[in-house]
Write a structure and sequence with these properties.
Shape: elongated
Strand content: 5-15%
Helix content: 40-55%
Strand order of the largest sheet: 7-1-8
Order of helices and strands: HHHHHHEEEEEEHEHHE
Number of strands: 8
Radius of gyration: 23 Å
Largest sheet: 3 strands, antiparallel
Length: 244
């Protein structure tokens, strides 16, 4: 409602103020608990690896800070997740001294995977796969791909943070042809080739191999393309020859 009645606006502002009050001052406001429970559910379900780094009480304290201080304008599930990330990024007191930069990086990574999951793309991902790849096929990168440089290693249900004297690693996050979110660890050569394909559309495997050869690197590009095509990160398009 663009122009709500003044009485409705005043009532909404009073309810919002009540919701943001600390627990001891809410006077049994059940809606406040409902809001906090919903936000808690969004955070723990959207960011499970991040949530696992903290105790239940620490998470509740973060949720209390989010509800009390963050002026969120969108109430849908995915907006709450994005708003929570923005809150933690900006509010130093959100962590109460318990959060490391590594934890923030993990939160941002899980937010990226969530965005990939709900991303709307025009390409038909079910067609984003051909079993056999030949050198004349033009190549395209999966449109949902997001590249992430992170200070940790991912396992199936856990994460290992790297020590400060080790390099960070790259992961490519994308949706495959079955609409599953895939998180693929990438090497430096993988990042370099993917970036070439992003910068130069419809490059063929043969042309990509030439680029690699010019760099005096011994590397089987066609085998690389075959592997990442099977994963769903790259699509190869058959190019027909036109004869007059």
């Amino acid at each position: 409602m663009l122009n709500p009645p003044s009485q409705m606006l005043a009532q909404t502002e009073r309810l919002s103020a009540m919701i943001r009050l600390p627990n001891e001052h809410r006077d049994g406001c059940r809606y406040s608990e409902f809001i906090r429970d919903n936000v808690f559910g969004v955070v723990t379900n959207t960011f499970p690896l991040f949530s696992a780094q903290f105790s239940h009480l620490q998470l509740e304290q973060m949720i209390d800070g989010f509800v009390a201080k963050h002026a969120a304008f969108e109430a849908e599930f995915h907006h709450i997740a994005s708003e929570f990330v923005q809150f933690v990024q900006k509010d130093e007191s959100a962590s109460s001294g318990t959060m490391l930069l590594q934890h923030l990086a993990l939160l941002e990574y899980e937010w990226v995977t969530f965005c990939v999951e709900i991303d709307a793309v025009s390409d038909n991902l079910s067609d984003f796969y051909r079993k056999e790849v030949i050198e004349s096929d033009s190549l395209q990168v999966n449109p949902t791909l997001r590249l992430n440089q992170v200070p940790f290693l991912l396992h199936q249900d856990s994460v290992t943070f790297l020590t400060t004297d080790r390099h960070s690693v790259f992961y490519g996050v994308f949706r495959n042809q079955e609409q599953h979110v895939v998180s693929q660890r990438l090497r430096d050569i993988d990042i370099a080739l993917i970036q070439i394909l992003i910068d130069q559309l419809d490059l063929t495997s043969a042309q990509l191999q030439q680029r690699v050869n010019h760099s005096n690197i011994r590397f089987n590009v066609l085998g690389w393309v075959q592997h990442f095509s099977e994963l769903g990160l790259i699509r190869s398009n058959f190019q027909e020859n036109n004869y007059d």
